[in-house]
Amino acid sequence: MTHWEVEVSGSEVAELQESFNQGPIIDDQGRRVLVEREVDRIGDLKIIVYSDEHPPPHFLVKCSEGSRRFKISDCSPLDDTGLEKYLRNIRKWHDKNKNLLITTWDRSRPSDCSVGVYRG
């Protein structure tokens, strides 16, 4: 079997990488699958940012015991209950990783996302 290799410029690779970062295109109109990005793990807790979400910019923490959403700006909960025993852990993680959340949020915004990039 013959293989062909073609050199591609940096800008073309960057464009393809950005398209991959936004998730798979699912139809001819360029709509994409909603994808989650796992930002980090704290033991059993998964910290996730979804690519097409509602305002305000936020992240989800979930584990086998449940899930809860938090604002990226100040880590205040968007849900009334859930993961109470982990709140201090989540806040401590947020204090050290807020910039990572912002970067992940901004990189995962599809071009047609109404929420857009983080504005804190």
Strand content: 15-25%
Supply the number of helical segments: 2
Strand order of the largest sheet: 1-2-3-4
pLDDT under 50 segments (min length 5)? none
Element pattern in H and E: HEEEEH
Roughly what percent helix?
A: 25-40%
Distance between the termini: 54 Å
Explain the overall architecture.
This protein is an alpha+beta fold and 120 residues long. The protein has a domain of 74 residues. 28% of the residues lie in helices and 21% in strands. The chain has a four-stranded antiparallel beta sheet. Strand 1 and strand 2 form a beta hairpin. It is elongated. The model has no long low-confidence stretch (mean pLDDT 84).
Which terms would index this structure?
4-stranded antiparallel sheet, elongated, 120 residues, alpha+beta, 28% helix, 2 helices
